[in-house]
Amino acid sequence: MSFVTLFTAPKPFTDPLIRTIQCNAIRNWTRLGGDVQVILMGEEPGLAEEAADLGVLHLPDVQRNEKGTPLVNSMFDLARRHSQSPLLCCINADILLLPDFIQAARDLHRQADRFLMVGQRWDLEITEELDFSPGWDARLRGHIAQHGCLHPPAGSDYFLFPRDCFTDLPPLAIGRAGWDNWMIYAGRRKHWAVVDATASVQVVHQNHDYRHLPGGQPHYRLPESDQNIRLGGGRRTIFSLQDASYRLAGGKLSRPHPGLKKVLREVEIAPLVHLGSVPLAHVFFALFHPARFYGEVRGWLQYKLSGK
Hints:
By secondary structure, this protein is of the alpha/beta class. It has helices spanning 16-30, 47-54, 72-81, 100-111, 136-147, 179-189, 223-231, 260-275, 278-288, 290-306; strands spanning 4-8, 36-41, 57-59, 87-91, 95-96, 115-118, 122-124, 149-150, 158-162, 193-196, 204-206, 246-249, 252-254. Helix 8 runs antiparallel to helix 9.
């Protein structure tokens, strides 16, 4: 039985660069050995053929929204029903992993019952098929050291958790802004260990543009992202990696350093994390960020007065 099931809903394989990036990622995951099961979900063009060629499980019957985008709650349910792994991981189809990912998963599994492991990524320009012959991990580490750029802690590309966690997700759209932030919020709200594993895990994002999205727009500008934010409980539930409650370093789980910025943020989000009160969260946000709150209120009033 595998220890971790990686599951994802890839983009269409019709664009040559996107195909190369996604095939690199899937081949990479299969090189992590018997500890890993890989599941690809959806009916995107070329997906069934690539899954068969790469020897991984393909599940086409994922539920979608009105725009045809796979829904996160359906993906999580499918992964749970078609695997026996104690840990599940929803991961973007452009992400490369190293063996340290599995070691971190084992370290965390020993130290916490319920958790969410997330972390920053390293951005790399990769436009060709990668060589995964023996020594691939050392070559990839060298490439990261020479050309990688650590992405700011603003987004998440993988979410590792025990299989009995996240059984009640709202119908969020995958690949659109807001859903990843909601995951961190939900973990904190349920008082699980939300773990920033950046110090223990190097994950690689293969850079690409947004030409695969409607109008070539970044995902955070699409209406589906606005819908994700509404379904997730609104703007106050937009949490980031900086809202993690633990860190994993050297195989050890510990609390982050309680600097002033972290302490103030914990006070700000306390109404949500400890009381589940959105109205009180708005009050705290207004106290901590009066200019931003004023801008939000003014924008809301302009929208209402426009009659749209």
